[in-house]
Structure formats: C-alpha cells, structure tokens
Specification:
The protein is an alpha+beta fold. The chain has three domains: 6-79, Arc Repressor Mutant, subunit A (Orthogonal Bundle), CATH 1.10.10.200; 83-132 and 207-249, Alpha-Beta Plaits; 133-203, YebC, transcriptional regulation domain (Alpha-Beta Plaits). It contains ten helices and ten strands. It has helices at residues 6-19, 21-39, 47-58, 63-74, 76-79, 106-119, 148-158, 180-189, 211-225, 241-249; strands spanning 83-90, 96-103, 123-124, 134-142, 162-165, 171-175, 196-203, 207-209, 230-235, 237-239. The strands form three sheets. A four-stranded antiparallel β-sheet has the order 3-1-2-9. A hairpin with a 5-residue loop joins strand 1 and strand 2. The longest helix has 19 residues, at 21-39. The two termini are 20 Å apart.
Length: 250
C-alpha cells in the first residue's frame, strides 16, 4: 500500500503478517517463481529474484522452500500457467489503485478482484486509466532515529533521486529502478539497516482522506490483499498520522 507514511504502513502490515504467516509465505513463493520464470534461476544475474529471496529470508522462510520455489519457477513445466497481471481500479473518494497479481488462473483472479471492488464501492478501470498516475521507483525506508547524514551521503553517492525525513522521523529514499541496486549495495556495505526496500509504484500526487474515508479505503485494500493471487495493492491516498493512530486503536 502506498500513500500515507510508509513507516505507519510497515508497522500496520507487520501486525497482520504475524497473524497470517502462511498466506505471506504463499505470496512470496509465487513472486520467487515468477521472478525465476522471467529472469532465470541465478539470483546473481536476476535482481528481481535476488530481492524476492531476500524478502523470503526476512520472513524466515526455510531455505528448502526457497530452493524449491526457484526450481519450480525456472522449470517450464511447473510455471507455464503462471502469469503476472497488473489491474487498474477506481476506489471511492477519487482514489486510484494498482493491484499487482501473480496467478495461474486468470479466470479465477479477475472475478475475485471485481467482486471485492464492487462490494466496497470500487470498480475495475481500463488499461492505462490509472497507471499514468504512478511512477515505478525504488524505495528504501529507515526507521525513526536512523543516521540521517550517512543515509543521505550514501543515497546521493549511489544516484538516488530524493531523501526525505518524514514528520514521524522515518527517512524515505527514492531511486530510479536502475539505481536501486547501487544504492542498496552502498547501504549494505556501510551497515545502514533499512526497515524495508522495494521497487514499487509511487503516486505522483496523493488524495487526502478524512477518518471515515480512510477507514473505508483501508478496508477495501485489506480485502483485496487477502486474495491469494494479489501480491500488493498500490494507492494514491494519503492519511494523516493522527488519523492512522486513531484507526490503529479501533
């Protein structure tokens, strides 16, 4: 999910992940398989696979599970039906959604997503109707209290576009996709530990939501992400920190 403070999002998702470990493993395995299918089984030559394996390790996925997923993805007989689909959608209050999926059955995925959108007053959009509102970027997030000067120095050295300290003290580093790996290597080499790192869809502008609107949009996104085929939902909404704090207490 993109929009309001990414640190708030990370904290919120971590609570969900702790309760849904099996579902998270399933989504990561699909991402590993898709990455291996597209770019091959060697993580040194396949940056997407390398990132997927890193995320699997962060979630303490057993090594054998990772190895099997890579092998299955690289084997044409195992991954022939697997495809990646990016759906575009409209949510209430003028919010735009990009819904990233990896599926082995398009005829199952499409109606499932459409059903959730309809139930929560959203709708599918035609190709290109929403995606132009987003840019593909590399994003690193550092927790509040991280070493701001060092982060900025190495981010700029690696070619990052922007380094921003948020109101909550978290630090966000934005790169072009092609600069993601060089920046990551500098952070890792200099022991700068980020809370998250990903190549993601970043909204060009955001839509501010009040508490009631935020509750409804978050509910819609949660329901979409419960689907096994949905890897991630990107949104151009923005929620103030105090509203997020109130919603987290509900």
């Amino acid at each position: 999910m993109s929009g309001h403070s990414k640190w708030s999002t990370i904290k919120r998702k971590k609570g969900k992940i702790d309760q849904e470990r099996g579902k998270i493993f399933s989504k990561i395995i699909r991402e590993i398989m898709m990455a291996a299918k597209i770019g091959g089984a060697d993580p040194e030559a396949n940056s997407r696979l390398r990132l997927a394996i890193q995320k699997a390790k962060e979630e303490n996925m057993p090594h054998d599970n990772i190895k099997r997923a890579v092998q299955k993805g690289a084997a044409a007989s195992e991954s022939a039906n697997l495809e990646e689909i990016l759906f575009e959608a409209y949510a209430p209050f003028g919010v735009a959604l990009l819904i990233s999926t990896v599926t082995d059955n398009r005829n199952r995925t499409v109606p499932n997503i459409r059903s959730v959108l309809t139930k929560y007053n959203g709708s599918m959009a035609s190709k290109g109707a929403v995606s132009y509102l987003f840019d593909k970027k590399g994003v690193f997030l550092f927790e509040p209290g991280a070493e701001e000067e060092k982060i900025m120095d190495f981010a700029l050295e690696g070619g990052a576009n922007d380094v921003e300290t948020k109101e909550d003290g978290s630090i966000e580093v934005i790169t072009e996709p092609g600069k993601f790996e060089p920046v990551k290597e500098l952070f890792d080499k200099n022991n700068l530990a980020y809370a998250s790192n990903e190549i993601t869809w970043v909204p060009q502008t955001t839509i501010n939501l009040d508490k009631d609107q935020a509750r409804k949009i978050l509910k819609l996104i949660d329901k979409l992400e419960e689907d096994d085929d949905v890897q991630q939902v990107y949104s151009n909404h923005d929620i103030a920190e105090e509203i997020m704090a109130e919603l987290d207490e509900e």
